[in-house]
Structure formats: structure tokens, C-alpha cells
Specification:
This protein is of the alpha/beta class and 231 residues long. It has helices at 3-20, 34-47, 64-67, 81-91, 129-139, 189-198; strands at residues 52-56, 73-78, 96-100, 112-118, 140-151, 161-162, 169-173, 179-183, 201-208, 212-219.
């Protein structure tokens, strides 16, 4: 399938989140019900994301505010300047810095002790799964750890799936009536665990009800992905 079709879908995904930033925290689809969020916060606290922490696709700061309680310094990255502006207002912590970047083209400027991302892995096209995890690898120090939160395949029944797209995709509608396509690739825990193992990661995955999972991951062997790093 032509590369530009996938690039166009990913550009539309960025445009959607830029347009939706102002209504993200108060309109459906809202990622987390209070009970699930409480369990996820408890899991993150037990994980203890200390040291230099990197948050990918940080959005409006729902998790940035939790990470900032643990991190010595936190770098929050998102492609949407509108999301980053809302995040700054929500968090307002001295140990947080913000970077605007497209994660499919970004080169990390340093290594981190922890990489965190929530509601992002399902937005990575399957054909870029391996490259994305190479990026995660390149972001980490030798003893680095990863914490992931996302949705389980059962959520697919509540999505408006679009056929004929270059990657699994769904339709999202704003309050204005504008409609966008976004990538939405779900993974059952055994499938995700196996895919990560094939790339050299050891992952532990836990489910929260029928809708969410969280995963922790470490490299099974020394890093192979340093080609992403800036010299």
C-alpha cells in the first residue's frame, strides 16, 4: 500500500487531536472511568516512575500530573501544541518540560530512566509497531523501564470502524460535527506479549475490567536501538 496513504491517515490523526484538545476532557470518548483510573494510578504508584521520565503523547496532562509526583524531571512530548498548552496549565510543575514533536519522526535528545505512554499504542499503525518500539528502546538508559496503559480489544465493539484504510482505523466526531479518522489497532495481552518478546522485551500485562490494560516492560537483553539517538 502506498506510503503516502498511511502518512495521510497519521496526519489526520494529529489534526483530530489538535481540533479536539479543548473538548477532550469533557466529551466522549473519554479514556478512563473513575474506578479504572484509581486502579491504574495505584499500579503506576507501585511501579514508581522515578528519575528522568519521558511521557509520549502526553495530551492534556491526565497522566503528566501523576508522573510529576514521582519524577525528578519529566519530559512530556505531544504533536499538538493545543494539547501541550492545556497540559502546562493543568500541571504547572517546575520539574516538567514540554516538547512538541511527531513521534513517528522524532529523535530523542537523551536517554531516560522511564518511558510512559497511555492511550497511544493503539494509535500506532501495526506496520510501524517494530519501529516505534525501537524508538522506545533508543529513549531508555541501560536499566530503563516502560509503563503502558491502553484499551483492550473489547472496546472495538464501541467504535465506528472504517474499512479500506491503510491501517486499522475508526471515525471520530467532534462537537462541531467535523469527522476525522484515527488509527486504532487493538492488542489482546497474549498477542502483545508475544510481539514484544519477538523484539527483545520482557513484558508483564494486567487487565482492568474488560476495557483497559497496563503493561510494564524491560529489555530482555542490552539495547539494540541506539541508532535513533542524537549524537
Amino acid at each position: 500500500m502506498p506510503r503516502d496513504e498511511l502518512d495521510s491517515l497519521l496526519a489526520e490523526q494529529i489534526a483530530y487531536y489538535r481540533a479536539r484538545a479543548g473538548e477532550y476532557d469533557r466529551t466522549s470518548p473519554f479514556p478512563f472511568d473513575p474506578e479504572s483510573r484509581a486502579q491504574l494510578v495505584a499500579a503506576l504508584d507501585a511501579f514508581a516512575p522515578r528519575g528522568a521520565v519521558l511521557e509520549l503523547a502526553c495530551g492534556t496532562g491526565q497522566w503528566t500530573v501523576e508522573l510529576a509526583r514521582h519524577a525528578t524531571r519529566l519530559t512530556a512530548v505531544d504533536a499538538s501544541p493545543e494539547m501541550l498548552a492545556l497540559n502546562r496549565r493543568r500541571v504547572a510543575a517546575d520539574n516538567v518540560r514540554y516538547l512538541q514533536a511527531d513521534l513517528f519522526t522524532w529523535t530523542p535528545p537523551e536517554r531516560y530512566d522511564v518511558v510512559f505512554f497511555s492511550a497511544w499504542l493503539t494509535h500506532v499503525p501495526p506496520q510501524r509497531f517494530d519501529a516505534f518500539w525501537s524508538l522506545v528502546d533508543a529513549c531508555l538508559g541501560e536499566q530503563g523501564r516502560v509503563f503502558v496503559i491502553d484499551e483492550l480489544p473489547g472496546e472495538a465493539a464501541h467504535e465506528r470502524v472504517i474499512a479500506g484504510t491503510p491501517a486499522p482505523a475508526v471515525e471520530r466526531e467532534l462537537q462541531s460535527g467535523a469527522r476525522y479518522r484515527t488509527v486504532k489497532a487493538f492488542y489482546a495481552p497474549p498477542t502483545l506479549r508475544a510481539r514484544l518478546a519477538a523484539l527483545g522485551w520482557r513484558a508483564e500485562i494486567r487487565t482492568i475490567g474488560w476495557r483497559f490494560f497496563y503493561a510494564t516492560a524491560r529489555r530482555a537483553s542490552p539495547s539494540r536501538g541506539r541508532s535513533f539517538m542524537a549524537e
